[in-house]
Prior knowledge:
The protein is built from 77 helices and 28 strands. The chain has about 1900 residues and is α+β, with helices and mostly antiparallel strands. A hairpin with a 6-residue loop joins β14 (about 1235) and β15. α3 (about 30-40) packs antiparallel against α4 (about 45-60), α21 (about 425-435) runs parallel beside α24 and α61 packs antiparallel against α63. The longest helix has about 40 residues, at about 1170-1210. It is flat, with a radius of gyration of 46 Å. The N terminus is likely disordered.
Amino acid sequence: MAAAAAAAAVGGSQSPQAELPAPGLALDKAATAAHLKAALSRPDNRAGAEELQALLERVLSAERPLAAAADGEEAAAAGGGGGPGAAEEEALEWCKCLLAGGGGYDEFCAAVRAYDPAALCGLVWTANFVAYRCRTCGISPCMSLCAECFHQGDHTGHDFNMFRSQAGGACDCGDSNVMRESGFCKRHQIKSSSNIPCVPKDLLMMSEFVLPRFIFCLIQYLREGYNEPAADVPSEKDLNKVLQLLEPQISFLEDLTKMGGAMRSVLTQVLTNQQNYKDLTSGLGENACAKKSHEKYLIALKSSGLTYPEDKLVYGIQEPSAGTSTLAVQGFAGATGTLGQLDSSDEEDQDGSQGLGKRKRVKLSSNTKDQSIMDVLKHKSFLEELLFWTIKYEFPQKMVTFLLNMLPDQEYKVAFTKTFVQHYAFIMKTLKKSHESDTMSNRIVHISVQLFSNEELARQVTEECQLLDIMVTVLLYMMESCLIKSELQDEENSLHVVVNCGEALLKNNTYWPLVSDFINILSHQSVAKRFLEDHGLLVTWMNFVSFFQGMNLNKRELNEHVEFESQTYYAAFAAELEACAQPMWGLLSHCKVRETQEYTRNVVRYCLEALQDWFDAINFVDEPAPNQVTFHLPLHRYYAMFLSKAVKCQELDLDSVLPDQEMLMKLMIHPLQIQASLAEIHSNMWVRNGLQIKGQAMTYVQSHFCNSMIDPDIYLLQVCASRLDPDYFISSVFERFKVVDLLTMASQHQNTVLDAEHERSMLEGALTFLVILLSLRLHLGMSDDEILRAEMVAQLCMNDRTHSSLLDLIPENPNPKSGIIPGSYSFESVLSAVADFKAPVFEPGGSMQQGMYTPKAEVWDQEFDPVMVILRTVYRRDVQSAMDRYTAFLKQSGKFPGNPWPPYKKRTPLHPSYKGLMRLLHCKTLHIVLFTLLYKILMDHQNLSEHVLCMVLYLIELGLENSAEEESDEEASVCGPERCHDSWFPGSNLVSNMRHFINYVRVRVPETAPEVKRDSPASTSSDSLGSLQNSGTAQVFSLVAERRKKFQEIINRSSSEANQVVRPKTSNKWSAPGSAPQLTTAILEIKESILSLLIKLHHKLSGKQNSYYPPWLDDIEILIQPEIPKYSHGDGITAVERILLKAALQSRMNKRIIEEICRKVTPPVPPKKVTAAEKKTLDKEERRQKARERQQKLLAEFASRQKSFMETAMDVDSPENDIPMEITAAEPQISEAVYDCVICGQSGPSSEDRPTGLVVLLQASSVLGQCRDNIEPKKLPITEEEQIYPWDTCAAVHDVRLSLLQRYFKDSSCLLAVSIGWEGGVYVQTCGHTLHIDCHKSYMESLRNDQVLQGFSVDKGEFTCPLCRQFANSVLPCYPGSNVENNLWQRPSNKNIQDLIKEVEELQGRPGAFPSETNLSKEMESVMKDIKNTTQKKYRDYSKTPGSPDNDFLFMYSVARTNLELELIHRGGNLCSGGASTAGKRSCLNQLFHVLALHMRLYSIDSEYNPWRKLTQLVEEVNSQLGNEEQQPEVPILYHDVTSLLLIQILMMPQPLRKDHFTCIVKVLFTLLYTQALVALSVKCSEEDRSAWKHTGALKKNTCDAEKSHEVLLSFVISELSKGKLYHEEGTQECAMVSPIAWSPESMEKYLQDFCLPFLRITSLLQHHLFGEDLPSCQEEEEFSVLSSCLGLLPTFYQTEHPFISASCLDWPVPAFDIISQWCFEINGFTERHAEQGKALLIQESRWKLPHLLQLPENYNTIFQYYHRKTCSVCTKVPKDPAVCLVCGTFVCLKGLCCKQQSYCECVLHSQNCGAGTGIFLLINASVIIIIRGHRFCLWGSVYLDAHGEEDRDLRRGKPLYICKERYKVLEQQWISHTFDHINKRWGPHYNGL
């Protein structure tokens, strides 16, 4: 049917219906659609089909919009009035109508969805989407799930993590090829195909007709819009323009795919149907437009360097276009062609010119590959051409999403994969040219990972489309574009080419999408098998790998430092790891069993061939070129790893895959060169090459690279060593390390190839390398679990590690597709076996620890392996760190007190194939070297270190451990032609050679050497001297000659042709006899054996003669069970003893000889050996040692001083708090407070003209305002329902109260009735250090000139205390005054309260003139300014008349209130603990009070309005106030806040204040407070209670202490207030307020005490600061009585036997009933009119709970899931960086420009509104907390940790995170105590941009 329709379409343009009137069309789309649908449903539907085609032709005409796209001016004309947009819209509307066939489009969508067999999820996402991966459920490691499917499945206890998608991806839920069915979510578990009904035929009938035309139209747009970019101008702009125009069309297609399976299968039919495509696109019809479009398509194909095969046949091959290769046709005939033609000209030298100097690119001619892979493309369906354009337009996101959304359709999936493979080469070419290669790479991988992760699909494409051939070929082609000639070895004649690491292709990792696909498909067994069986592919692949062999060659700079350090090594290491090593690991993972032996043989065979070719190409004979090294030998490493696998898993015989000796000798050269270069680099011999060479040496051993680089290299060297002649190998090693000349018995020598300062470290390097080579067993017999354990122990010994860093540091199989670390189960079990977990701890300093693993004691005891540590350390300091930790362990466990040596660790047994390796330990060359070194160490020759001795002993011990069992046989078999070293040692077994005495040695020495001076011994002294002179002439020093000889022998043996023996290169470089004519020969008398040297060494190390005594003489048992723990840890002495014991055990002869040597009392080392020069160096050493010890001592002393200073600075009361020293009458001398200036160091009092000040930090704080009245802390909202409303906070309640008062009362009076500062109050804290104010000014000047300061702004007055470095921003002047004065004021006076009240009133009445202009007063003014500027204006101005003095007055006493209240909170909200708390130490309230009082006294209150009068006198003219109606009344005294009154009264007094005045004021105010409590109580209780109390109290009114009985007073209050309307209108709604409990006398008493306590606490604190009285500590229930007696409220005679009654503290200044009745009268006057408000103002909530941050949920995921998708309330977008405030729960956009207001971003703005400049935000996407403090911010850390106690910043690991309550407590503590500035160190300015 579709074919018929399509046929009609070709001729459709002439059909008569085409001339339908246009208006008719528009009239009713729905009707037309319905009519067409009906027409098409008839059996004979040709007419309908033609009609539809005509309609579509008109609607979807491609001409209009494209004219518009191509050219702006014509757009209006072409598109009629509406411009292009309108036409597009119209076309889409038509399509929707037609699809729905006349019905509504939405109903149509719903209908189609009903037929969706939703077995797969297939949700496609783009970059940055949050998805999940569960390794427990995944079959493919690339498996991923969308959040919804993940949370709906059951993954409890699985190994899963959340991740942010980098390239985009798709959900695999429901796809059993990729994941196990147990992990499917609820929606995708059902196999639903069975019960979904069949799709009715007519539902999608229209779609089948309409969609082909629609897609063709889209393709035409794409063809039209594409213009070949000019050679140099990037054309992204044009492409993007076209893509924007097509946005609606592509979105429409995308919506179709989301309708489910039914619609997808229609789309699949349309996209893959070849007939449709052919009919519509051939461009043969007479339609000009179609023709043009087809031509554009062909041009695009050609310009891409592709051919359209039919073209060729039509036009013949006369005109190959520029980019086209004629090979397309000839290639089949096997013609050879060069790649050069292929690279189209614009890319020929895109960056070839820069930075390559003379290195020209090399082009390879390649005739091996089938050219057609690279440049033939034939499109047969819409899908293919659609993909072609997708690639051409560089993978627009929308297109990618559409193509991927179709994947759940199985038929489509296969077709699309094949299409993708067919375009693979084209993708590579586009990628190489792309300017946005990163984005494009991500999009490519987004697609390919969906296709190639599926094994079944990958296998099918491999078989049907030659996927492997295509991939390898494409990779090869890609790399061939950046080859240069290799300069390794033979620069002139080298034929080898390598990739140039400086090219963009490598530098930007442009190749990674292709490599990643390749690795992905190799992870499938079936595909990898094909690869390993295909010889041609293997050859090509080895070719590819050889491009990397020897890349990034380093040449050692010998003269001056390089000008430009190239960073190409990053690219080189990345390339080798990704392009060579990872595919190798992928292949290795399939070679695990015997049956796969054949594969290994194939790889090894082609690898060796490639290596042989490489040696030939670089012209390699037998000597590496000096001073150059490359770290990249992937061919060697392939060979090594496959050998290792063969022996370990496949039971192959090693010798069957090894080459001949000559090849082995060549193979070992380059890896050995790398090892020697590592030692050179660490000896600073490459320092002129810059830092990057160190970077290479580190990367080579770093955890991600080591098992693809250094491990295979060492393994290959072990294999070579086990098969080559040991003498040859050992001498090669010393020659490579350039230390041959050092190995002489003579005390002086000349080294022709090495400077003296490098000799020692190179010798250490050589010996260490031998130790590693001989003791490492990674590939020589360790099982995987043993390897894992050894790696883990090595890492843990260097440092304690977190779980994630261990996972990162332990080299896993680096092929990421191999999934998990070899059995993560084993990882956890090994970890728990070797390490203990240290939970995260918090130091008070605030530095946060993560959860760490630390080695168990038995690991240190038995498993610490220094060799493994040395192999794995990137930084040399880590080796030291491991040794230090080991030392500490031994000291702690009492195993060894001194400085231990690295312990000797027993090794895993060797695999039999590698037994030959141990022959190295039993070869004479090594023994001579060991003997020589022991001798030199004993003789104190220069350039030898303890490390050298340690390694020498280690090698001897290794030899003893691995000696041949039968000693006697060894003796016999030693004869033969090869006894070259006979003069030295008789055999080659170490055990017997140890006891062999060497008498004389002939050495070559410089004539200046001390040996020359002595006479040569006469030849009679030994019979063997003759032989020694013939054959033993300085035998050791012909190490090189020895090696040559062996080399020739091996060569002769391996090749029969004699002509090969003549080697042109003799190495006169090394042994240079001619170059130093002043050498002369001397004969040394030695007379030692290795054993005797060891025993003397023991004496030398212990510093005593005859210190060694053979232990077996006392205890014969030792020889029977030699494993003695006492020898396992210790220093050199222990090591020597251990070796001698082992030697004695191995042979009776040795035992006897040791005993003999010990019997002869060894003479002291002859002093004549030590020359004057050497003595000098010895003395120098000794002096140095002493100097070092002195220095240590000094440092230790300094440290302890510093420590004690820090302690005093932090914890001891600062001097000013000790002002009230107790001075008895006996010492009348006046002592002024003395201050130390921390800048100039002088001490002295503070004076008017040179004042001293306290270093203070002023900050605005809203912590008080966050107190709430309920105990339950608020929770952070995690659903839409939970919201936090701030109206129950302290700040809100106080705000409401003030505005209520201001509504009804006089403004100036209101401002005296309350305190402000609950929000934005100024908190003052000090570190306790003082300085002269003039010193401070000069200090600030110096800071201003110092530009390097970070973290604080000097212009804002910020600085750090010069002594303790604490952050500060102002200086608070200390008021001059003597302590005696203070003390006199404190003497209790015996005046009665009435006199005192008068005095107070008089003192307040005196106006406080501002003192004369002294420096002190200036400073006081300036600090007051600072205090005002600390907070924002809105937190200072509450008056209705702006700028009124009352405002300042209110602000000043509120500052005092804020500081007192905060200190109370720091003490935990009560004063039970007594004493001075930490907050108290830092307090500077005394000084602050002086400053405030000085300023407050400038404002005198009218004596009329002074509340003091109302408190202490009865006022007669009561009516005068009420009569004055129009003026607002004063605030009634009962509405006043008593604490505020207290501060006003005290600050209005002249300072310093007298103690009895203070007590007087407190007593008076307490009466008011108590009355307020009674009033509040009366309002709270019910009507019945009131009348009952009124009655009982009235009875007692006339008793003697009626004024001190709360019952009487309460009854009086009730009767007074009943006169007004306060208790009236108790409607039903009032019942809620009435407390349902019955009031007992106890509960009333408790209520009254609780009401008064806050006042008593603040007052006691104030008294403590003003008069220095200590606070007593007490139980909570007695707090009231203790505080009241401490304040002097309790009469002294009060007995405590009977229960305490609060009323007994009352001391009425005037008769109680009169004054109460006066106060109540004011209230009644007010409640006449406003009873409701009157009641509200009386009930004050006084019991605020401590402030808390919001309570956070246990699991971080609950926060993340709710907030990371939540839209911002301001801009209604989902923020890129969402954050939430932990104080109030507000959701904000971090850095969001969308919510910026007046240049402030939202977080900064919120921190000002919510915390007066302090904000604490949780960053949702990073799980970390950020603190904003004023203009600075810092990252605080995270309060969510994973199961291993670690943070996961930025959620990189994505493991589940749980709240860490301790950390959250620390955060809250820092918030409450305002110590963020002091504790957190890393602050930076945020410039309002957060």
